[in-house]
Amino acid sequence: MGCLIGISCNVDDDRNRLRLNRDYLFAVEQSGGVPLILAGSGETARAVISRVDGVVLSGGVDVDPRHFGEEPHPELGEVSAARDEFELALAEEALRRGVPVLGICRGSQVMAIVGGGSLYQDLPSQRPGGIQHYQKGARSRTSHLVALSPKSRLTEILGGQREVRVNSFHHQAVRSLPEGWDVSATSSDGVIEAFEYPDHPFWLAVQWHPEILFAEDAAARALFANFVQSVEEVSQGAR
Questions:
Q1: Which of 92, 93, 105, 200 is labelled catalytic?
Q2: What is the pLDDT of residues 4-22, one digit of tens each?
Q3: Are strands 34-38 and 101-104 parallel, antiparallel or unpaired?
Q4: Catalytic residue among 133, 170, 200, 209
Q5: Known catalytic residue: 92?
Q6: For residue 61, which of 8, 23, 132 has the smallest C-alpha distance?
Q7: In the chain, what's the furthest Cα-to-Cα distance?
Q8: What is the model's pTM?
Q9: Whether 209 is catalytic
């Protein structure tokens, strides 16, 4: 059996339900990992992180701006107090313990916040004139290009490519990163599309959705494969 990869999920506070697209499970399984859907409270995050080998922080609703010291913007979307509490605690523990984490869309924003970064609450109003970051085409089709930083781990994972075309479904985005964290990719309007923390075994986040592209996109498969491989290496080293 492969390493155990925990995947966070959407929490519907009103209906008391959990939800996760199966694309995440498929991508992890096909890459050699064993997926496990994660949810809980901030208090249980420490116990959860000690039982998984790696974490995928998935996409979903907006992050409450109180967690990066701001009041809600008029265009702020749905937020989930329960999900914020659990994922922020989970990410903080993973950062502290050196547990590999792959962040996707909202997940990237959670990762930035726990390090002390900040977000744009609404790109169209806070950075007007940029490209379309919430595409109107099919979710399984790519929309815009991102430029990769030449010396980044992400560029190495993707075989030295200088740019890659991605899908895009977000109106929030990372505004600033903590000191020592590196931007891995940007869109043509300068929005941070990926970042990494070199001093962590695997702390890499992308703003797009590689799990949706996985079946047809070589770059998406390479990203998940490298993540699961890194999880295995860290897990074996800890034994």
A1: 105
A2: 999 999 988 787 899 999 9
A3: unpaired
A4: 209
A5: no
A6: 8
A7: 51
A8: 0.96
A9: yes
Phi-psi group of 207: left, alpha or beta (phi > 0 → left; psi -120 to 50 → alpha; rest → beta)? alpha
Residue type for position 79: V
Alpha-carbon distances of 16 from 6, 39, 71, 230, rounded to whole Å: 21, 12, 26, 34
Residue that the structure tokens 């502290």 belong to: 96
Say which residues have a Cβ less than 8 Å from residue 205's Cβ, sequence separation at least 6.
Answer: 57, 101, 102, 103, 104, 107, 108, 111, 112, 194, 195, 196
The tens digit of pLDDT for each residue in 170-212 reads 999 999 999 999 999 999 999 999 999 999 999 999 999 999 9
Handedness of CA 134, 136, 137, 140 (dihedral sign): positive
Q: Provide φ and ψ at 8, rounded to 5°.
A: -70, 160
What size, in residues, is the chain?
Answer: 239
Helix axes 218-238, 22-30, angle to 10 degrees: 70
Half-sphere exposure of 200 (CA within 13 A, CB side): 27
171: annotated active-site residue: no
Model confidence band, residue 239 (pLDDT cutoffs 50, 70, 90): low
